[in-house]
Design a protein that fits this description.
mainly alpha, elongated
């Protein structure tokens, strides 16, 4: 228990940025969020690190936690915006198939409200490790692909129907 308390204290006291550049692709995302998952699973590993390495690892940990929290916020805001658009009677224009895929893109994945950041980190890391051929892609593209595969939404329209913007959150 004392080790956990010291670890959490170190998380709070460590700066949220680290000396390296911020992750932009899947390789760097795997490194940063892999650190978050690894340190969460093996908290005692942090005690064997030098001060410089500990600061770097905690920076990665904090960056990943912030990135995942921001991703959750953006997805929630997209859902709210779609609801407002539906209440206002806004519809998507274009062929039905295009409207359907535009709606799915705007809606994004359906991450459960009670999903913890560590769970999201585990899902992301697992998906990245299962798709090494895509690690050169942008982190945002890979994050959405991982979460869409792992947290699919219920089908609200078929490709033959126009996309409806008024949907309940799953």
């Amino acid at each position: 228990m004392r080790t956990l308390a010291l670890f959490l204290l170190a998380c709070v006291l460590t700066p949220a940025v680290y000396a390296r550049t911020l992750p932009t692709d899947g390789n760097e995302l795997l490194d940063a969020c892999g650190t978050m998952v690894d340190l969460s699973d093996n908290q005692s590993a942090a005690t064997s690190l030098s001060n410089e390495r500990f600061t770097e690892k905690m920076g990665q940990f904090n960056w990943c936690a912030g990135y995942l929290a921001a991703t959750q916020d953006v997805l929630l805001q997209n859902f709210v915006n779609l609801g407002v658009m539906g209440m206002a009677g806004v519809t998507l224009a274009g062929p039905d198939k295009v409207k359907h895929y535009a709606f799915l893109s705007l809606r994004g994945p359906c991450i459960p409200d009670n999903a913890a950041l560590l769970q999201l980190g585990r899902v992301l890391i697992k998906w990245l490790r299962e798709h090494p051929e895509r690690l050169h892609e942008l982190k945002s593209v890979l994050t959405m692909a991982a979460f869409t595969d792992s947290f699919p939404c219920e089908q609200t329209t078929s490709p033959k129907e126009p996309a409806k913007l008024t949907t309940g959150k799953p």
